[in-house]
Amino acid sequence: MNKKTSWMVAASMLALCALLLTMACNKQSNTEQSSNNMSQTTATAPVATPIDPATVATVNGTVKFDGAAPKAAKIDMSQDPACKGMNEAEAIVVDNGDLANVFVYVKDGLGSRTFDVPKNEVVLDQSGCKYHPHVLGVMAGQTVQIKNDDQTTHNIHPTPKDNREWNESQPPAAAPLEKNFAREEIMLPVKCNQHPWMKMYMNVVKSPFYAVTDKSGKYEIKGLPPGDYTIAFVHEKLGEQDQKVTVGPKDTKTVDQSFKAAGE
Amino acid sequence: MCSSKGNSLSTNPAIYNRAHHAFAVFTACATLVVITAGALVTSNDAGLSVPDWPTSFGYLVKVPQFVGGVRYEWSHRMVAGTLVSLTLAIAVWTLLVERRRWLRWLAIGAFCTVIAQAILGGLTVLLFQPPWISTAHATVAQTFFCIAVSIALFTGKKWVEEVPRVEFDSRRPSLITLTLLSILVLYLQLILGGMFRHHGMSWWPHVLNAVTVSFVLAWTAVRAISVYSNIEAVRRPAIIMLSLLITQLCLGFTAFLTRVAWGRDTAQPELPMVVSTVAHVAVGALLLATTVVLAIQVWRHVPVAFAERVPQAQRNASPA
Ligand code: HEM
After folding, report:
1. Are residues A40 and A120 in the same domain?
2. Ligand 1 atom 19: residue of nearest CA
3. How far does the CA of residue B86 sit from the closest CA of chain A (Å)?
4. Closest to A213 measured CA to CA, from A229, A233, A230
5. What's the order of all strands across the beta sheet hosting A135-139?
6. CA A83 to CA A149: how far, in whole Å?
7. Is some CB atom of chain B closer than 8 A to the CB atom of A165?
8. What is the 3-state secondary structure (H, E, C) of B127-154?
C-alpha cells in the first residue's frame, strides 16, 4: 500500500467512527420518567391482633451524646448550581448534648402480634439536594412517597441487605415515586450517586411502635399494649443500644439513652 | 552468544504502514483516557448516577444536565463508545492491510474484548455494581489496554523493519519467566485492588501483595537492566517499569492515606482522594502495559537457550 492509499484508509476509518457515533444519536425509548409502580407487592398480611385502646401505654425519653460532639463534615455542593442550603453532613447531629436521628423501636416483646399496614404513605423529600428526613421509619409494605423538590435530577438508590435493590432517577418536577420494602431492615442506606453527599437511612419494621429522635433528642412511642419489651436505639454511626422496659396499662415510662463517640 | 535471527513473532512477512501504526497508537492512547475516565467514575461514586444502560436517561447520545456524578458517568460512556468505534476501525483496517495472521487475530481479539468490556460495564450498572463484576470490568479494561499497546508495538516501524538483536538466556529463572511472573502478580494486584475499590474485600490483601509485586518487578527490572543493557528494546521498558513501580508505590500510599486513613468520615469524595486514586489506577494500567511490552521484547530478543533447541553454531553467531 503506498502512502496516499494509507492515508485514504486512515480517513475512511475515521469517517466510519464518525458514522457509528452519528447512528448512535438516534433516540431510544425514553426511560427518563421513572415508573411509579409499586416495586414490591406486599404479601397479604394476616389480620391484625386487636389492641385495647383503653390500656395502651407510652414510652418516651431523650437520647444524649456523651462527650464533645464531633464537628460536622462540610459538604461542598458546588458541582451542581441547583443545590443550595446548609452545607453540613448529618451523620452525627448533636445540639446541647441531645442526639438527633436515632431510630428507636420495639425490637422484642410483641410476640406473634401482627399489625395492619398503614394506608397513608410516609414522605421522603429531596430538597436543597438533601434528604428530608435524614432517618425515616416505615412499616414493611407501607408506601414511601419520594418527592423531588429540586431543579435538578436525583437518582434514588437504596442499598439494602434483605430487600430488593433498585436505582431510579427522578428529574425535576417529576411525579413522586411510590415504593415499599417487603422485609424488616434497620438502617437501610439510601443514596444519590449524582450528589454523593446525599445519604439517608430507611428503617423498615413490622410494628408501628417506632420513632426517630428530633433535634432535642426526644422520641415518643405511643399505643403500646402492656408488656415487657426490648427497646432498641440505633444510630447510623454510633451503632445500637438496647434497653428493657415493662409497661403496665396506661403507663407512661421514660427510657433515656446515651451514646458515646465510637471507640470511646 | 548472539544471533541475528528472531523468533516466531518476527519471522512473519510484514510491511510497515505508517498510518495504520499511527491509528493503533492513537487507539492505545484513547484507551488510557477511557481508563482514567472510568477511574473518575468509581472515585466519585458516580457509577449509578445514570440508572439505565445502554441508553443514558433514555438516549444513546444526548447530553443530559451536566452536573454532579452524571458528568463522570456520561462522559465515561461517551469516550468508551468512541473507543469501541476506534477498535472496530483498527480491527477492520488490520484485516485489510496486515499480512501477519496472528496480528489479524489479535485485532479481532481486541474487538471482542472491547465488546465484552462494554457488556461488563452495562451489567455492573444494571446489577448495581456487584464487586466481582466491577472488578472484572476494571481487569478487562487493563487487558484491553495491553492488547491495544501490543498492536501499536507490533505495527511499529522498529518491530516490522528491524532485524532483532538476540541474546540467548541461560540463567534460571529465565528473564521471560520473570516477566511472565511479573504480569501474573500484577494481575493479582489489579484484582485485589479492584475488589477493595468496589467494596468486595478489605484493603490488606492488596497492600500485602504489593510487597510481592515490588519484589518480583524489581528482580525482573534489575536482571533486564544489568544483563541486557545493550539491548535497547529490553532496557527501555525495564527502566520505565521500575520508575512506574516506584511512582505506583508512592501513589498507593497516598491513595491509602486519603481513602482509608483520612477518608472514612468525609461527607463526599474529596479532591485529594479522587486525584490520588485515579492516578493510582492510571499508573497501574501503564505499569501493566509496560510489563507486557517488556515480556514481548524479552520473548523476541532474549529467548531461552535450550541446548537441544539452539545449535551451537547459532549460539556462537556474532551480533547482527
Ligand atoms: C505495587 C504496585 C501496585 C499496583 C500495581 C497497584 C494497582 C492498583 C490498581 C490497578 C488499583 C485499582 C483497581 C481498579 O481499577 O479498581 C488499586 C487500588 C488501590 N490500591 Fe494499589 N497498587 C499497588 C500498590 C499499592 C500500595 C503499596 C498501596 C497502599 C499502601 C495501594 C493502595 C491501594 C488503594 C487504597 C486502592 C483503592 C483505591 C480506591 O479506593 O479508589 N496500592 N491498586
Report:
1. no
2. B193
3. 6
4. A233
5. A135-139, A199-205, A185-191, A154-158, A168-170
6. 11
7. yes
8. CCCCHHHHHHHHHHHHHHHHHHHHHHHH
- If one residue of B36, B241, B251, B280 were mutated to test the ligand 1 pocket, choosing by the most ligand atoms within 8 A of its CB, it would be B280
- The count of domains in chain B is 2
- Does B173 sit behind a cis peptide bond, omega within 30 degrees of 0 on the bond before it? yes
Q: Is the minimum CB–CB distance between A230 and chain B shorter than 8 Å?
A: no
Query: Domain of A33?
Result: 1-44
CB contact under 8 A, B68 and A24: no
Nearest CA in chain B to A87: B267
If one counts every other C-beta atom within 10 angstroms of the C-beta of residue A43, the result is 9
For chain A, the domain total comes to 2
Range of the domain at B113: 1-164
Task: Identify the CATH number of the domain in which residue A165 sits.
Answer: 2.60.40.420
Taking CA–CA distances from B68, the nearest residue in chain A reads A194
Q: Which of B164, B188, B218 is the last residue of a domain?
A: B164
Ligand 1 atom at shortest distance from the alpha carbon of B213: 1
- The larger pLDDT score, comparing residue B11 to residue A79, is at A79
Task: Give B229 to chain A, closest Cα distance, Å.
Answer: 36
**B308 at interface of A, judged by CB pairs closer than 8 A:** no
Say if residue B24 is in the same domain as residue B69.
Answer: yes
Whether the pTM exceeds 0.80: the reply is: yes
**pLDDT tens string A185-200:** 999 999 999 999 999 9
Last-in-domain residue among B116, B146, B164: B164
Tell how far the Cα of B285 is from the centroid of ligand 1, in angstroms: 11
- Say how far apart CA A79 and CA B269 lie, in whole Å: 12
- B17 and A32 in contact by Cβ < 8 A? no
Q: Measured between CB atoms, which of A13, A25, A155 is closest to B51?
A: A155
ipTM exceeding cut-off 0.85 for this assembly: no
B287 and B220 in a common domain = yes
